[in-house]
Amino acid sequence: MDARVETKSAEILDKSIIRNLLQKYLKELSQFDVASQSDDEVSEYEYLDDYWTSDNRYPFLIIVKDDIVGFSFVRKLENNTFQIAEFYILPDYRGKCIGSRSAVQIFNQFKGVWHVAQGEKNIPAQKFWRSVIHKYTDGNFEEERSDEQPRGVKQIFNNDQSITTSIDELHEKLKKSVSKDTCYEPQRHLWSDGNASLGQCYVTTLIVHDFFGGKIMKAKSSNGISHYWNRINGKDIDLTRDQFPTNERFTDEQVLERVNLLDNKRYKELKRRVRLLK
């Protein structure tokens, strides 16, 4: 089917249409997720009204030849980070590239890091999103465990190359931008131009993640201070490793969720400086 797909913002008058689609969507989801199984009306969908009142939520209708065939909800999690919160295509319109075309249209509207999660047992959704995202990113995405709803797996990728095109380029901008005031406060008295990476690992890791996605890693150094770095496509990217001796050993390694990390003043200031550099 060579259908023209239009993904347009849903107006407040479209809320009743989306409510009806939500009813079908949640009923279908219930076969994959026990937590979704309920006989309650779709008005119980907690965030429905928020998609027309919040600045960080975006409702869309998916249209083919003037027929409404689905909907999508997008959330902005923080600076330049977005999430497909809900996505639904009516069964009669599946397998016709409508869902994949709509997904690409949505991705292209918002540039940044994307999180797309699917439930553990929702294998059809996992196959769909892996295929769409693999094609969209040319395979340049991460997949990891999602411990938030829906619990299962999630794909993470970055489609914003407007500021930096490589990690090396970003690294050069960061080196020009760090200073004593972007250093971790308890270490500021030790910071110098000769050890410019000192106390910069947290803010540096957040900025690298903003542009390239991947995983945020944390471990303890031998002096008990937490150290942060990135893991992208299975490779460790540690732009502040040079603040430690070459033989430094780290313990208690863990993966952190970006949504649980604070965008502090140091991060905001460092990112502002990076953006100003051409």
Low-confidence stretches: 35-43
SSE pattern, N- to C-terminal? EHEEEHEHEEHHEEEEH
Q: Distance between the terminal alpha carbons, to the nearest Å? A: 45 Å
CATH fold label of the largest domain: Aminopeptidase
Q: How does the overall form come out from the CA principal axes?
A: elongated
Global mean pLDDT:
88
The biggest beta sheet reads:
7 strands, mixed
- The SS-based structural class is alpha+beta
Total separate domains: 2
CATH architecture of the largest domain: 3-Layer(aba) Sandwich
Total helices: the number is 6
Number of strands: 11
Task: Using the coordinates above, name the CATH class of the largest domain.
Answer: Alpha Beta
| Proportion of residues in helical segments | 25-40%
* Name given to the CATH homologous superfamily of the largest domain: Gcn5-related N-acetyltransferase (GNAT)
- Taking all Cα atoms into account, the compactness measure Rg is 21 Å
Q: Identify the strand order in the major beta sheet.
A: 1-2-3-4-5-7-6
What proportion strand?
25-35%
Please, could you describe this protein's structure?
The protein has 278 residues and is an alpha+beta fold. It folds into 2 domains: 5-158, Aminopeptidase (3-Layer(aba) Sandwich), CATH 3.40.630; 167-276, no CATH class. It contains 6 helices and 11 strands. It has helices at 15-29, 98-109, 123-137, 167-177, 201-212, 265-276, and strands spanning 5-9, 57-64, 67-78, 81-89, 113-119, 142-146, 152-158, 215-220, 226-232, 235-237, 251-256. The strands form 2 sheets. Strands 1-2-3-4-5-7-6 form a 7-stranded mixed β-sheet, sandwiched between helices. Helix 5 (201-212) crosses helix 6 (265-276). The longest helix has 15 residues, at 15-29.
